Amino acid sequence: MQLKFNRGPQLVLLFCFFLVLCLVPFFISSFWLRIATGVFMWIGLALSWNMIGGYMGYISFGHGAFFGVGAYITGLLMSHLNVPFFPAMLAAGLFTYLFAALIGYPTLRLSGAYFAIGTWAFAEMMRQLVLVLKVTGGPYGLRLPAFLNETFFYFLMLGLALLVFLFSYLVFEKSNFGLKVKAVREEETAAQTLGLDTVWIKIQVFALSALFPGIIGGAYAYWITYIHPDSVLGPLIADQMVIMVLLGGIGTLLGPTIGAIVLYIGNRILWVAWGDSSVYLVILGVAICLVILFLPEGLISLGRAKKFRPGGRHFGRAPAGEIARNKARAQGGS
Fold first, then answer.
1. Which of 22, 84, 167, 241 would be 49's cystine partner, CB 3.0–4.6 Å?
2. What pLDDT does residue 83 have?
3. DSSP single-letter state for residue 299
4. What pTM value is reported for the model?
5. Where are the domains of the chain?
6. Which whole-number Å values give the CA distances from 284 to 54, 136, 278, 292, 300, in the listed order?
7. Residue 230: which of 104, 71, 41 has the closest Cα?
């Protein structure tokens, strides 16, 4: 009973916070409504990338491709086969999940810079392929049926962001599977000696991290109504996912959320102030250098009592005691 009593105020705060989010679109302008919708979209994307980059420890530059593939699959199903939006979006997510599992089988045998380069090459290959295919519209892009309801897309992106957040919490923070993933991240050879199928675990994480970008890409395509290879398969999409996670705090649950909010809103504010200029990139680069230098665990470390200094422990790495506990608990849950 005491436990329930202590958790009561937290549940009330969460309910009030969710209620505020539901009321927001009715009290702000359409401009800020679009920005809020974009914030939730990038929160979902950053949390998705954090599954493979943070919890698994593999830096991927190919997740922009899964976002773009999801957008094109949704667009093709809706415009060519007249499939309704929600079935098309879910089909796009399922396709990217299976596609990532197929791609992950050979690429996850690489590690470090080789894996990063391999995923980058895969993303660029997908962009070039879509540019030459007639069914995708090639360099002319693809147009989807228009649905001009900003409030609908706000709640859609909000729901998807909450879904990815809850999924990350349950699967990677509170399950035996999450412990196995962390054990593989910290010491793959030791995890193998404990009987863990590290190849299968890595493929599962890679596929799960691609599932949600595929779904979100489909929602984005319907929201924008026109997609082009450079807009949904460009390298900046994956780059921003990586930066958001590193900025907020890699390998954590709240870090990618904070990074997405700060980076996207900062981007929009600078765009309003200076237009489409290189000022945003300069400020972003300086901000990232300062965070890496003084807050190696990301902006989320500002909320901790611990004092940080330049050259702190590596992103996403746990203390030795935690590593040992993860291995032991993963072995017990296998």
1. 241
2. 93
3. G
4. 0.85
5. 33-333
6. 21, 33, 10, 12, 18
7. 71
